Amino acid sequence: MKTIKIFLASSEELTEDRNAFGNLVRRLDKIYEKRGIRIELFEWEDYDAAYNDCRKQDEYNDQIKTSDMFLALFHTKAGKFTIEEFNVATEEFKKHASPKVYTYCKDLQEGEQESPELADFKQKLFEEMGHYWSRYNNRDSMQLHFVMQLQLVETSGMVEKLKLEEGTVMLEGMPIAKIDNLQFAAGNEAYQKMSAELAALPEKIEKARQRVEKFPDDEDLIDDLQQKLNRYNKLKDEFAQIQKSLFETAQRIAAMQLEQVSDMLRRAIEAFEDGNLERANTLLDEIAHEAEHHMEQLEQQRALVHQDIEAFMLQAKTVMADASIVINERIRLVIDIYVKADDWAQRSAFPQEKYINLLDDYISFLCIFAFYDNALTISFRLLAIRESIYGFEHTNTAISYNNIGSIYYHQGQLSKALEFHLKALSVYERELGIEHPNTIKTYINIGAVYDCLGDYPKALDYYIKALKKQEKNFGFDNPDTATLYNNIGVAYGELGLYPMTFEYYLKALTIREKMLGLGHPLTAETYDNIGMTYNSLGNYSKALEFHFKALAIYESVFGQNHPDTAISYNNIGAVYNSSHDYPKALNYYFKALYIKEKIMGMNNTSTAISYYNIGGIYSKQSDYPKALDFYLKALEIFENHLGPEHPNTHAVKMSIKRIKAMTN
C-alpha cells in the first residue's frame, strides 16, 4: 500500500490550526485508504518537544527528508526551528524533488502585526526563491489549499478529483470548503451582488405567483412572473458558472505554488484571493502586454515566457469568473487566450506535463460550449503526446481515449465513439479495477453509445453494470447516480417498457430537482425524457407540458443556438407531428435543424435525424419532391456513420421506396 508522508511545521500560536489539519488528514486517510493509499502526518508533538544536547531537531530534520510533503504554517511569528525545518526541506527538494514544500500564511486580523523575523523570511522567500505562499483566513480556505496540493502530489488517479457541488467543494462525498466562505468570493463585489439577487428572487417570484393567482387573466402580471422566473433560472446557472470559474482559478493557483512567479503575477494572485477580480485582470493584462516583448526574446527569456503562459492560463479562469463581462464576450476572450497560450507553449518548449494540463483545460472549455471540431483536433494532439510519454496502455492515455470518444459521441460519429471508449475501458479495468470511478464512467459512456446505435439490451447491460457499482460507492442520492437512472429510463423507453421507464425517470428527477435545482440543464433533460414517454403513450398535452418546461431552461441557460436547445425543439416538433399538427411540427423541426447545421455540421447523425423528420412531414403533406430531397440527405449520412443495417438507415430506405412507389 502506498503511503504519503506529510511533515507539518508551525509555531505554538497556531495550535488550533494544526489540530484542524490533523483532523482533516484523518478524514482524508479514510477516503484514500479505500483506494490503496495511506496518509501519514508527522507533527513536532509526535516527539518529545524538549530540546537537549541530543538535538531533537536533528530527528525532525531526518523525518523531513523522508517526507513527500512539507507544510510550514506562519501567522505573526517565524521561529528559528520552523525556518530551519523549511531550509532542510527546500534543500532536500533541490536534490531529490521531494518533499514538495508548501508555505501557509494566515491573514493578520485587526491589531495584529507580523514579527520582523517573519517579514524578513517572507521577503527572502519571494525575492530569492520566487516561492509564493498560500494565504488563508479561515478553516475552509486552509482545507481547500491543502487538499488541492495533496492531489497534485498524489497523481495516480486512484482518488476521484475535487468536485464543486451546489457551491461546496467535495471530495468523494466529503465537504472540504464552501465557496461563500473563501475570501475570493466573500470579497468579490460582483459575486456578492449576484448572490444577493439570487437569494432575493424566490420571495419575489412567490409574491408574483400570488398576484397571478389572484388575477389570473392579467397578462402584465403573468409576464412579470415569467420574467422573474427566467431571470432566476438564468442567474442561477450563471452563478454556478461563476463559482466553477472561481474554484478552477483557485486550483490553477494551487498548481503554481511550487513555481517561481513574478512580482506582478504574485500581486495578481493576491488581488484574486482578496476577491478583486478587476484588479487581478488589470495586472494579468499588463503581464500579457509585457509577454509580447518576452516572446520576441524567447531564447534569452524562455523562463519568463513560461511564466507568461501560466498567467494566460490563470487569466482564462479569471475572465470566465468576471460576471461584469457578458457571457459571449467572455467566451470569445477565453478562446483567444487559450489559442495564444497553446501557440506559445508549442513555440517555447513548454514542459510536457504542464502542456498536457493546458490542453486538457482548453479541450474541456471547448466541449462545454460545443466547439466540438476544434476540441477533437486538439484532443488528437494531446493523445499523441500522452502516447509518446506513457505508452498506449496507461491510465493517463486512457483519459484521452475517453475524451475523444465523448467528442465523437456528441458529433454523432458513434462507431468511432465506441472504438475509443472501449480502448479506455480496457485500460481502466486492467489498471484500476471495475469499481473505480473512471471505469464506472466509461461503462456509462459505452452504454450511451449503444443507446444511440439502437442496441438497447447492450446499453442496459453497461448501465446496470455501472449502476451497481455507482450505488455501492456513492449512494443513491447522488447526481451521477441520477444520470444513470435517467439513461436506464431512456433504454427502457426505447424498448417500450414504459412502467420501468417512468420508474427510473422519476428516480432521476427527484435527485436532480433536489441536488441541482429546477433550472438546471440536467433537470431539463429529465423533463424532456418524461415528455417523450408521454408522447409515446399518446398523452400529447402532458408531453408538451414537460417539453416546454425543458425548453424554458435550455433557452435561459444556453440561449437559442445550442445543441441541447435543438433537441428540445425537435422533441416538441415530434409531439405536434404525433398529434397531426404538421405546420407546427415543421416549424419546430426547422428550428432544430438550423442549430444542428450551424453547430454540428451537415454531416452528422443528429442533423440527419432532423432531415428525416422534416422529410416525414412533407410526405404527410403530399409534397413528395421535398420529402424525397430530405430523405436522401438523411440516407447518405446514416449509411456513412451507422451502416446499411442500422434501424435508422432501414427506416429512411423504406420511406424513400414508399415515395417512389406513390409517384410512379
Question: Can you tell me about this structure?
Answer:
The chain is of the alpha/beta class and 664 residues long. The chain has a domain of 176 residues: Rossmann fold, CATH 3.40.50. α25 runs parallel beside α27. The longest helix is centred in the middle third of the chain and has 37 residues. The chain is globular. About 2% of the residues have low confidence.
Keywords for this entry:
Rossmann fold, 664 residues, alpha/beta, 72% helix
Give the structure's gist in a few sentences:
The protein has 664 residues and is an alpha/beta fold.
| Number of beta-strand segments | 8
The CATH architecture of the domain at 2-177 is 3-Layer(aba) Sandwich
Q: How confident overall, as mean pLDDT?
A: 88
- Unreliable parts: 46-55
- Beta-strand share of residues: 5-15%
Overall shape: it is globular
How many helices does DSSP assign? 27
Determine the CATH topology of the domain at 2-177. Answer: Rossmann fold
- CA-based gyration radius: 28 Å
Largest sheet: 5 strands, parallel
The secondary structure category is alpha/beta
> What name goes with the CATH superfamily of the domain at 2-177?
Toll/interleukin-1 receptor homology (TIR) domain
Helix content: over 70%
Give the N-to-C terminal Cα separation. 75 Å
**Adjacency order of strands in the biggest sheet:** 2-1-3-4-5
Q: In CATH's first tier, which class of the domain at 2-177 applies?
A: Alpha Beta
